[in-house]
Structures are given as structure tokens and as C-alpha cells.
Amino acid sequence: MKFILIAIIFIFIVIIAKVFYIQVIDYKKLNKSASDLWSRNLPIKADRGLIYDRNGVVMADNITTTSLVLIPNQIKDKEKTAKKLANILEVDTSVMLKHVNKKTSIERVHPEGRRLSYETADKIKDLNLPGVFLVKESKRYYPFDTFMSHTLGFVGIDNQGLSGLELEYDKYLTGKDGAIKYYSDAKGNKLKLNEVYEQPQSGMNVSLTINYEIQEAVERELDNAVTKFNPDNALALVMDPNSGEILAISSRPNYSPTNYKDYTNEEINRNLPIWATYEPGSTFKIITLAGALEEGKVNLAKDTYYDSGSIKVENATIHCWKHGGHGAETFMQVVENSCNPGFVVLGQRLGKNTLFNYINKFGFGKKTGIDLNGESTGILFPLDKVGPVELATTAFGQGVSVTPIQQVTAVSAAVNGGILYKPYIVKSINEPETNTVIKENKKTVVRKVISEETSAKVRDALEHVVAYGSGRTSYIEGYRVGGKTGTAQKVENGRYLDNNYILSFIGVMPANNPEVVVYVAIDNPKGVVQYGGVTVGPIAKNILTDCISALNIKKQDGGYPKKYVYTDPKTNTVTDVTGMTVNEAKKSLKGFNVDTQGNGNTVLYQSPEAGTTLEEGETVRIFTS
What is the distance between the alpha carbons of residues 76 and 39, in angstroms, rounded to a whole number? Predict the structure, then answer.
């Protein structure tokens, strides 16, 4: 009996201990498991994080929509419910019958019941059917539609990032869904217990380095270029050379992220400024120039070269773009005239090892590391395959393949004092409620490439190109602009195509202290002279002009006066006409189109202000009372 008593006491102790463990120690875990068995969740989708430009302009937003959710076990008359819903959603009744008869606790009606209009949602709500629920759902919205479409990317129907920044930063942009939790019995019948609302948590917001004003200018100019030239492709890229921040990026053809299903994979996945690879042409000469100056192989002002129109390298004859050549010229004029034979000489002076060393130091042949997916590496000759001809062609940008982002990054290093920065487009990731910075990108120095002294000489040479050489179409009166044109023949199946070129221009402003580098490339423009300066220079000038106001760039002294030729439009300086009568003002502004605003007879204000240089025929507005 004693043994039996001890055994009974021991059993009771074990039972009490187990009950204590269940009720106290393991309570939360077991209660949650039990709750999950008899609770049901009506999902509430979280908002995706917003994407802003650097100044707070929303580039990717959300709009609230409504979706249809069914609780099949709570639907009493399934056939009647299916018919009514099918009628409102304009689908076949058999489709809705499959949904209402699903053997599941909760059925999301997909895709027929996703992202309903307010009108449709109200019709369903008015039915007041058992087991039929409407829940909030967030839909991605792009306020500027096609702006930066390849860079921003797009999301799927469940708000998951599928390309561009939406994919690259998806883990930050995706929020945590909420729910309305109610309780039901084993048959799914709703119990009379209080519902629990779990609030959804929005995703993190992403702030970009993009400047909307500059981006708007890029989009406008690319649209105009497509209309005017009907190119195969077109792209533009704007960077802050002192940090690697991308200020604007876009390409054509583009697409509408909201309607991505209407486009091919090639149209939506090719972000040309970081993906496209092609022979750069004369814009690559900046790298050869920088290397030659750094190594002391040339004095631009004193060294001379006679351009006969071609140069012989082994068994190959390399021609200058100008038939008959430029004759005797200094090497500064070689740069101004974009003379291929002259740059062949600079490449020969450097030698293949030194030239390719600079090409590698400037970042060609490898990814820049920009925080976007789909970047290409470009193609360079293996050093052991470089002979005299390959050395010669590489020196003026032929026979190598680079990306636009590589060119902009390299030229930025050539003009900013010689520092190669890693480009980036995301400035920070912020918590949506408090705007607390969760992650921040800062400028990253890759390496020092050339000295400040060499960089200053490169800037001066590029300013000469715009004032006196092939880049004159990008000259802006009162502002120091440097730049280089490019005309690259396209290759297909190992052969150069006839009359099919990529025309480009890379511009720097101000040339004495750069704040912005602009690159524009037009692939195979139709019905136009195939020279970068003629076609692309004016486009770059328009973007640079918008950069002046967007970045508040002041006028600079000490620039070079533009050298005019007979093909250039005539320009005149706007005189001060304030205080004059309207007739006197019109006489003083002869050569301009005068637009009078107001009914008075005395000029109170004029735009643009006196001293501004405009092309003849441009508009000057005078304002009276």
C-alpha cells in the first residue's frame, strides 16, 4: 500500500507539473497554435515603399484598390452567389462557381476579383452576401508613367519587384501585410467573438540621387530626338562628377511600367545606359588624351602634327574624317578637330602597355558596380592580341566596346581632378513613419587615376573643343562648357555597316569646375548628317541649359569666345529696353522676335534680361502695364 501511495503521489506530481508547464511556461505557444486553428484572416495588403527623387518628388507611388475574398464555408447559397458575382465581374458563372466551391478556408478571387474599381466594389458591397468580403489592396502607381521606366522597373500583380530598382531593392520596398482576424468553428461558421485588426506595415521609402528637373529635360529631349530623327535607339545619362551620383538616366524605346505586359522582354529589360555596349568613337579620345598628358608625351600648345588625311600603320591606312586632312596643326587643334591620325600618334607615343593600363585604371573592361541590375562589362582587346593596328584604333575609340555608364564615370574622373568614383543612384533608404535613415549610400573612391594638373589640362582641352572645334553646337554664352563629340561606325557580324553610326556627345559644365557631366547617344538617326556635333550637340546643350537652373549654376568668367563659321546661326546681345516706348524697344531689338505683354506704352520689364546672347529670330518678351 505504501508503494501504491507513493506511485499515486508521484503521478499526481507529474500531472501537476505538466499542467503547470502547459498553463504557464508553454502557454503562449500553445495558445497561438490553438488560435490559428479556429481563427481566419482576411488579408490586408501593405503599401509598398515610395520612391522619391533627391528633392522629395514622388517617382513611384501607391493607390488603394479593393479585392474580393470569399469564405466558402460561410456562403449559404453558392449558385446564387456565383451568379451575382459573375454578373458584376463580367465573367462566366462557371468561373465563379469554382471559387465559391473551393475546399479552402479563404479563397482570394484571382485574377477576376483583384484591384476592382470603386464602382464594381460598391456593387458587390451592396449585395451584402454571406461569406463575401472586400479587402484593401495596394497597387503600384507611377505618376510620370514612362519616366525612367527601365531604371525604376515594375512590379507584378502581388506587388513583388520584377525589374529595375523595384527588384534590386525589393526587400526594403516590400511591406508586411496585415489582416482582419475573426474566429470560426470547425465548419467555418463565424463565432460571436471580437475581431482582431492587425495593421499592415508599409515598406521602406527609397530616395534617389535623381534630380527631377534634369530628368524631365532628358525625357523631353529624347522624345524630341525620336520624333525628329527616328533612331534605332537613344539614351542620355547625367552624373555629378564629384560624387558619382546619377542625376538623370533614360533611354528609348521606353515603356509604361503599369502596362508592362504589353511589351516584349527585350523592351522592358534593356536599360541601355548600363546595358548597351558599342564602340565609343571619338568620346574615347579623352582617355588617350589624359594618359598622354599624364605621361608627359605631349605638349598641346607647342607640339605640332601635320595631318595629310591619313596615316599608315603596318598594312592598314587609317583615315581622318576630313578628306585631305587638317594640314599643320598643334595637338590642341588635333583635339579640337577630333583628328584620328593625330590620336594614333598619341597612342603610339604611349605604347600598348601604358595606354591599356590607363584604360583599365579608368574602369573600362569591368562593371562600374552601380546599384542597378543588368550592367554589362564591355569588351577590350586582350593585351597579347594588341598589335600596332589594334593600338592605333584603340587610341581613337575603335575596336573596343564600352558602356555609357563606363564612359561617363571615366570622363568624370578625367575632369574632376583625377578621382574615379563608383556611380550610384540610391541615396538613402528611410523608415516611412519617422523618416529615419536605415541605409545610406555615400560617394566611394575607387582609385586616383591622374593628377589634378593633368585633369585641369583635359578640362581646358575640352573647353577648346566646344569653343573652337567640333563641339561648337553645345556652346552656351556666359557658361564654360567643355565636351567631345563621337561618331562611331556600327558593327554587325564582324563587319562595319555603311551609313549606320552611333552619334554621341559628352559634355562638362562648368569646364573650369565641373558640376555635371552629360552624355547623349543617338543610334542610327535618319535623314541627318551623321556627325555627333551636328546631331547630338544641340540635344546635349538643351539638357545642359536645364542643368543651369536645376543646379543653380552661376555664370563664369574667363571662358573662350566661340569661333563662328558661316554655317552657325548669327547671335546678338539683348539690349536694355526698360523705360523705352514699345516702338523704341522693337527698333532696339531688331533681329529678335519681340512679344509684347500688356496694353501700356512703356516697357517695365524684359525677358531675358539685358546682356543675354540669343540667336537671331529668338523671342524677347517685353512687359508693359
Answer: 20
Whole-model pTM?
Answer: 0.82
Instruction: Give me 354's grid cell.
Output: 601604358
Residue 238: partners with Cβ closer than 8 Å, 6 or more residues away: 211, 214, 218, 246, 247, 248, 249, 516, 517, 518, 519, 543, 547
Cell of 196: 482582431
Confidence category of residue 329, pLDDT binned at 50, 70, 90: very high
Q: Are the C-beta atoms of residues 564 and 575 closer than 8 Å to each other? A: no
The rounded distance, in Å, linking the Cα atoms of 84 and 97 is 11
Inter-CA distances, 471 with 228, 382, 484, 507, Å: 20, 32, 6, 9
Residue 27, pLDDT score:
82
Q: Is 458 helix (H, G, I), strand (E, B) or coil?
A: helix
Distance CA(55)–CA(209), nearest Å, equals 9
For domain 212-550, give the fold.
Beta-lactamase (3.40.710)
* Cell numbers linked to 242: 564629384
| Residue 502, all three cell numbers | 552611333
* 414, 284 contact by CB (below 8 A): no
Domain extents in the chain? 41-208, 212-550, 571-623
- Architecture category of domain 571-623 in CATH: 2-Layer Sandwich (3.30)
Give dist(CA 389, CA 406) in Å, integer: 24
List all residues 6 or more positions away from 286 whose beta carbon is below 8 Å from its beta carbon.
410, 411, 414, 458, 462, 484, 506
230, 309, 493 from 497: Cα distances, Å: 18, 22, 10
Q: One-letter amino acid identity for 199?
A: Q
Q: What is the pLDDT of residues 492-547, one digit of tens each?
A: 777 777 778 899 999 999 999 999 999 999 999 887 766 656 789 899 999 999 99
Active-site hit among 282, 412, 428, 470: 282
For residue 282, indicate whether it is catalytic. yes
pLDDT (tens digit per residue) in 34-50 = 665 566 667 778 889 99
The CA distance from 35 to 194, in Å, is: 13
Cell numbers 506511485 correspond to 7
Query: Topology of 41-208 in CATH?
Result: Penicillin-binding protein 2a (Domain 2) (3.90.1310)
